[in-house]
Amino acid sequence: MTKSLFRNKQTKKLQNVSLQEDLALSENMNATQALLEKAFENCSDVVFRQVNLFGERKALLVYIEGMVDRQLLDQGLLHTALNSLNGYQEEPSVSMSSQLDQALTVGRVLAALTLNQLAKGVLDGNVALIPDGAKSVLISGMDQAPSRSVEEPQMEPLIRGPREGFIEQLQTNIIMVRKRLKTPRLKIESFTVGELSQTKVAVAYIEGIATDSVVEEVRSRVSRTRIDAVVESGYIEEFIEDLPYSPFPQVQNTERPDTVVANLLEGKIAILVDGTPISLLVPMTLWTAIQSSEDYYERFMIGTFLRWVRFVFFLIALLLPSIYVAISTFHPEMIPTNLLLSIAGAREASPFPALVEALLMEVTFEALREAGARLPRQVGSAISIVGALVIGQASVQAGIVSAPMVIVVSITGIANFAIPRFNVAIAVRLLRFPLILLAGTLGLYGIGIGLLGLLIHLSSLRSFGIPYLSPVAPLTAGGLKDVLIRAPHWAMKLRPRLTGYQEPLRVPPGQKPGPHHSGRNEGE
Amino acid sequence: MFRRGSVVIILITMIFVCTGCWDRMEINDMALVMASSMDLEENGRYSGTVQMVIPARQIGNTSQKTKQYFVESGTGSSIQELIATEQSKLSRRLFVAHRRVLFIGEKLGRQGIKDFLDHFGRNPTTRLRTYVVLVKGGEGKNALNIDYPLEFVPTEAVREMEKLVGGMAVTMRDLFLAASGEGIEPVMGVVELTRSSEKVNAGNTRKTFNLTGTAVFKDLKLVGYLNARDTQLMMWVTGKLNSGMLTARLPDRKGSASIRLTSAKRTVVPSIQGGKVKFTIQLEGQGTVEENKSGLDLANPKYLHLIESALEKSVPGETRKMIELVQKKYNSDIFGFGEVLHKKKPKVWRKLRHSWDELFANAEFIVKTDFEVTRAGMIGPPLQLKEREIVK
């Protein structure tokens, strides 16, 4: 009872924020000015500027300083419209706005009937034009938000592949996708999320390839999100994922337009958010954790090999410390004798049990990593020196930590870096600790239990209706071509079964290159 | 939701209760036993010795003089009692899962090992791959006190030698299999503690391990030994031989050639003739010439055939002599002929199994050999010989 009351109160509060008094606008310039000035009270960045429209009529320009290109404003609006004395005729049949539309060389004229529309238009970077004795309009197309240039993505660097990464501006990002998919079938639906931030969110998919029901699901999940502000795409991610209490991410993210395009072609759906270079991709499967875009750009053999390396390191990152703890404290008979003697010799001086030692080292490593990630780049190198010297050498020489444990922790750290998807890597990072605890209390049996629980969780997890372990579980034989190996592009004839079944054929068969092919081509 | 949560909590608690034994043990709380020995004392009690590594001296630069192992012993009328007395002298728990070798004193072997073997099969930490070795003419604990500088623990040398030399390497598992099997008797590797040529101090020579043949058991009691040469033939007959040296004497040429075996096979065909059992043993082998003292030009295939026929003549005789020794003197079917009969003629075996001891003692053996010399090494005639000395 109390719970439901509380909930009601909260929703009410949010509604108060969003609902403003909406007023219809009159054709009186001064009245509109007064309303707007009240709305933008204490907003020093909003400019109110009186001009003469078409030479004779008084008008008010309202815009935000800096969000409007000043040159365009001068040349496109003020010069043309104000100086074309002959252009204006008092004719009741032709409205002011359509005449203005014809006179303008840049931008478009949009009608604004209410105060809210007008204010929102100004906040979006449009210019509000409020003529005396005519309807107010918004002139769009002159916005110029500050943004950085397109740079190489920092999070997902590649050796071979496009150097272009998303930036904080949605429009630019959409163009980067669009220019790679020049088809009208690429649909980009726009949403606005965030009561205060009014962030633009674009949902992109390829019509006919992406499953309609999944597109509809994404649409509904994005549009029902109610939050005060969307600062980063992570805000959206947490509202649209299937199971929030899972350590595994169910939404893939990337800052590479080429990755977005490749995933769109597999029938996935991209969610681009204004204000962040990180875009979201759904549905996600676990196997994307071992896939890097470079696999598809380099030759397929190295792609397959690297995939297996990542597989192995994925398991090492998850299991190595716990297996070391379990075997050295519960099952020393499993270690080859000579190795056991080395470990025994190294462990001799160590004052802590293996479990404590493992936790100690892992936590220290996490601290080092965190410190290294947050530090300014100039001081960052100091951390690695301190880390290498203090943890790597001094602690072993002082007999506080045994050398094998340092090796285990460092290999685990390296293995974790080898997982290309950062959001999966941090899930593995987190899961390591419960597994170490299980290993330290129950031995290999504990690891078995932990892995079993993990497997049950993973196989029941879904991302937008797609099983998280597909195409391995449920098994689709053709799908393994892109999981266990990276088949050559001419051999990957079909799209993934579960996301791209509406238009399965990707590559027409019979394109395997060879001398036979080239010979025939020469003949023709 | 509440019900599901409580079920999960109950299941998780069950996980922790379900485990049978709590066997968490830090490595630095263990005494790693590398080898142990069993002996019989005058008063009929068992005495046992364990050899443990000192982990702190395993890595880093340990000086030459400090020992990397130490030994401790105990006595008791049973193995458990014996271990308890050993354990009471140790600061760390005995950990036998890495034991490589178990030495058994000759006296204990003669008295019989049946009574104490149960411990090694029952205890989950003992390793069935442990080599079991009989110390000929000595006590097991003497073997544990021998220094052997080449390996990190002296007894490791015995394990390596068992693997390398290809002698009679018998593990705990083999012992159990042979002892419990019908129509087969167990054997054991034999180690002798001989004087090494290295002088230690004041002219005293060091003792060292020497693998010499096979110990023959009957009803798990030591009845006798086979020497190294007989051991090789015995392994050939049982099909376990895969390497070894054979010497072919060439009487008409006044020389000999040494052949290294590269493959050895055998087939045993049993037959019954009027209440008497007859075994036809066909030994097949391949080898390469390692040494040629005959002056023959071995590039000529004729002389290779000569060596082959010399071996085909000598091997069956020696083998028959060896089988006769085991058959008449020890009367112990260490070759597993009974088992062969069991496999080939199960119906006959069912009738004969109870009187197998006598039947084996009176069985007849025919040994045939088929040998092939495949290569003669890099050269034909010996390089040091003058042209006229070479028999072409």
From TrEMBL, chain A:
Residues 503-524 are annotated as: Disordered. It comes from the Bacteria. GO terms for biological process: spore germination. It holds the Pfam family GerA. The chain crosses the membrane at residues 308-330, 400-419, 431-456. GO terms for cellular component: membrane. InterPro entries: Spore_Ger, UPF0353/GerABKA_families. The keyword Kinase does not apply. Keywords: Membrane, Transmembrane, Transmembrane helix. Belongs to the GerABKA family. This is Spore germination protein. It comes from Paenibacillus arenilitoris.
TrEMBL record, chain B:
It comes from the Bacteria. InterPro entries: GerAC_N (IPR057336), Spore_GerAC-like (IPR008844), Spore_GerAC-like_C (IPR046953), Spore_GerAC_C_sf (IPR038501). Transmembrane segments: none annotated. It holds the Pfam family Spore_GerAC_N. It is a lipid-anchor. Residues 23-192 form the Spore germination protein N-terminal domain. GO terms for biological process: spore germination. Residues 212-377 form the Spore germination GerAC-like C-terminal domain. Belongs to the GerABKC lipoprotein family. NCBIfam families: spore_ger_x_C (TIGR02887). This is Ger(X)C family spore germination protein.
